[in-house]
């Protein structure tokens, strides 16, 4: 039997395969020592790859591989104990045949994508590592397999650090709870961008380990991404794979050239990840930049030795790109929280430290008075355009808005502080938007931001004066970044100003004034804008007054209640009072505003609801086409409110003085040609007429009668308007001028004159007269007043009601006389021994009539009404011609008719003629056409002093009126058409 040393080459290979399959490394080592010519290095490595179980611990065969790598075999006593029985019985031919059937694995065969370099040991170790991982998943065995050979090959070192180390740390050290999710082959096959994404996929999530949270992102960049980028092996492997596919074998020189062709290209994916992460998880980016010093800061686990993993020139480039990505991250985030702006400032300070430039100093928590003066030294490249701020362009190497320079960091620091202040003021903007506002925003853009800051959102709490002082200081800082506001504005140094610097200084002050007034900080407004000298006043007084009035009207329109002690009306009142605190003469606009507020406040004490149950609001007054008409609704909806006529008249006057227009249905404004006094008079008559109608609607005839007699007095013309040469009467004047707007007064008097109460008139304590006669006489007196107020076209209708009332009065008087006669006759017959005397009846009648009218006036006839009105008018309005007019009117009273004795005294004339007086109600029936023309003709529109008879129009008018009154005095009614009366009216 032959010994181990005498075995044929074929049998030696078969025996080596047996020892390898049995993991008998010592026997294999001894056999290799005996047959060094046969069992060469490559063959042994192929036998190990083919037959050695992957579960074999590396400590069993790594020493043997080390001996193979060194080329020295140590002698061992095991050589004598080699068991050759498995091949002893084989012939050489059989042994060679079996060797051909071994199918040994080639060192250059898949699955590895890195094909052989010039070192078989390196390729064996890489192939063995892949097989161990694929067959057993025992990734933790690979360091024991590869680490002993790191000094053997730089390529092996680079492969281990960039592939095995990151995967091992990711799966078993940093995130052991997840386990291995990638095989070595799959992980190695990842591209640069995918590999970066995988390694940093858990950096922003909160784990259960002690590191937990975002604090581990720096560790991951240092311990995972840094090794992954070791030597830029991604680009090298891509090049190697391309060369292998063409059938050529890459050389070390080719690998080195590949690394030079794409310097730092793999790091660009890391920088891109930083920018993308900033858009969604900005706190992670802040921690990453603060914890990681950049591409130079890599944790190799001690496996790199003294070898530099990055070239010095390449390192400078990627360090600059890292700083650029950090600046880009500040512009990529869309978050506007205070924490984000603090993180941005931390990044700026960190970048300044890494680039060895002066660090920007400012504290975002500084109070308003301590805000820094940025000054005019914030230089920025004039070549900046809006696309430079686009996220896709932030990492361009020549982008001026991300190139780390001292001036850029100072500008970004000022913009960050501005963004922080905007966030405190409730108008947070991302830093990139603040940069756009500063660099490319126009006046309207910046003014819009200012308005949103000042006026805030609806429902925001009102700011007190202390808050406003701080707010004003912060806004002024945003405008000028600490520069002197007036000096900068006067010099036009807009380049020195801040993010609101394009807004004019006066515009800025006016907008703040509006906001202060809206928050009712009137004392502060007076302090800053009113009670200061013209030199110190931020804007002109005229502009300030305009703003105050507009603000007051805005508060007025937004008010829900008209009471000036609360709500919007209170704010409006306080704003108006701010302008003239020391009794300075007020402008017309201010006076109108005060009158409007006074009227609205007075209206607030009444219940008022508009159409469809909509409650009244102050803005309805300004929006209403006829504000005076609202008083009619007040009278309708508030019982007994007509008794507060003086209050209602004050409201009406204030509405007129407030300058509110009265608009017709066609859109024309009423009263443009009237004086303010005429407008007030018309409003007073309208309000009085409404009150009269309301009193009648509530069956209060006495109050309506009082208002007509005492309030609806015909307007008296002025001296210039009574010139006799004008040929115009006082009645013509009142109808042609003051009654252009008034169509209510005469109708109110007419309505009261024809009013019939649903209840029977009751006697009063001050009068013993018949209540029905007294009521009818009062109505006729109201109709007489209506004649003085009504236009000419309405006189026939009034006279018709007068005639019917007079007929009714005659009937009542006749009934009363008949009842008196019966009473007297009955009394005479009951007295014993009395004889009836012919003179008794007239005396009794005369005394009874005197008692009846002891405190009352006799019923007035139409003529007496006209005569009394003309006489009173002549004494005040026509001092020169008054005697003539009175004589004309009184001359018609000389016709007397005695009815059974002396008549009842006339309350107006007071003149005696013989033994008795002519009753008023008898005079109308005795009138003739001539008496009408000279006595009451002026009531119908005739002239007090007759013009020349050759005027056709006047002559025709006289004839027409004479014919009209002739029919009035006869039995034929004035109107032949039917009248529709409301209940209680004629």
Architecture overview:
- The chain has 986 residues and is mainly alpha-helical.
- Among the domains are: 441-523, no CATH class; 808-825 and 847-969, no CATH class.
- 56% of the residues lie in helices and 0% in strands.
- It contains 43 helices and 2 strands.
- The protein has a two-stranded antiparallel ribbon with strand order 1-2.
- The radius of gyration is 57 Å and the shape is elongated.
- The model is unreliable at 109-116, 206-211, 233-262, 491-495, 721-731, 733-741, 838-858 and 871-985 (pLDDT under 50).
**Rg over C-alpha atoms, rounded to the nearest angstrom:** 57 Å
Let me know the average pLDDT.
Answer: 76
Total helical segments: 43
Report the strand count: 2
Largest sheet: 2 strands, antiparallel
Beta-strand fraction estimate: under 5%
Distance between the termini: 159 Å
Shape by Cα distribution: elongated
Task: Give the helix level as a range of percent.
Answer: 55-70%
Kindly report the spatial arrangement of strands forming the biggest sheet. Answer: 1-2
Give the low-pLDDT segments: 109-116, 206-211, 233-262, 491-495, 721-731, 733-741, 838-858, 871-985
Helix/strand class:
mainly alpha
What's the quick description here?
It holds the Pfam family Sec39. This protein is an all-alpha fold.
Descriptive labels:
elongated, 986 residues, mainly alpha, two-stranded antiparallel sheet, 2 strands, 0% strand
Describe how the helices and strands are arranged.
Blueprint: H1 9-21, H2 25-34, H3 41-51, H4 58-70, H5 85-88, H6 92-100, H7 120-136, H8 142-146, H9 154-174, H10 184-188, H11 192-199, H12 217-228, H13 233-245, H14 252-261, H15 267-280, H16 282-291, H17 312-332, H18 338-354, H19 406-424, H20 431-440, H21 443-455, H22 465-480, H23 485-491, H24 505-518, H25 522-530, H26 541-558, H27 567-579, H28 588-603, H29 619-623, H30 629-637, H31 645-657, E1 662-663, E2 669-670, H32 676-697, H33 701-711, H34 730-738, H35 745-753, H36 771-789, H37 795-830, H38 840-852, H39 862-877, H40 882-891, H41 920-923, H42 929-935, H43 952-969
Antiparallel strand pairs: 1-2
Organism: Trichoglossum hirsutum
Keywords: Endoplasmic reticulum, Protein transport, Transport
Main location: endoplasmic reticulum
